[in-house]
Amino acid sequence: MYVAGLVFAFGIAVADPPDSSTHQALTPPGKADAVMSRVYVEELELYETENGIMLRLEGNLPTPCHNLSPPEHDLQQDTLTVTLSSWHKPGAMCVQVLVPFVYYYNLPIAAGKPPRYLRVDDTIISFDPDE
What's the CA gap between 61 and 75, in Å, rounded? Predict the structure, then answer.
């Protein structure tokens, strides 16, 4: 089942299909060669696809010099926590302006019962439609 996501930009609704990320996650070159920073996630949506459950993250990178890092995840009891961060090369001169992004992430959920909750930053989403 595919559920269309709508993004409202300049008063116009634009549908973006899964796997249409505006930025790709890149592994930092190394601890000494990268400065890690926060990513500002503003919107979360879950999609059910034939390959499993996909998470659509929309937000902002701190500057145009920042790259998305591959998401990290941790499953504790009934909550799957996904952490998204960014990185840039030290000493890079960059304009201080937020850069919008849309990123799709296939959730690492094994076949069977999914966790009850998904946590990204301070936002918690329930997998139970009745909650």
Answer: 25
Please state, in angstroms and rounded to a whole number, the distance separating the CA atoms of residues 83 and 98: 19
Closest CA to 84 of 39, 46, 124, 22: 39
Q: Are 117 and 80 in contact (CB under 8 A)?
A: yes
Residue type, position 117, single letter: Y
Classified as helix, coil or strand, 12 is strand
The H or E element containing residue 119 is strand 117-120
Strands (E) located in 25-116: 35-38, 40-49, 52-61, 67-68, 72-76, 79-83, 85-88, 99-106
User: What is the pTM assigned to this prediction?
Assistant: 0.74
pLDDT digits (tens, 9 = 90+) for 78-108: 888 999 999 988 888 889 899 999 998 888 7
List the one residue out of 21, 20, 23, 33 whose CA is nearest residue 87. 33
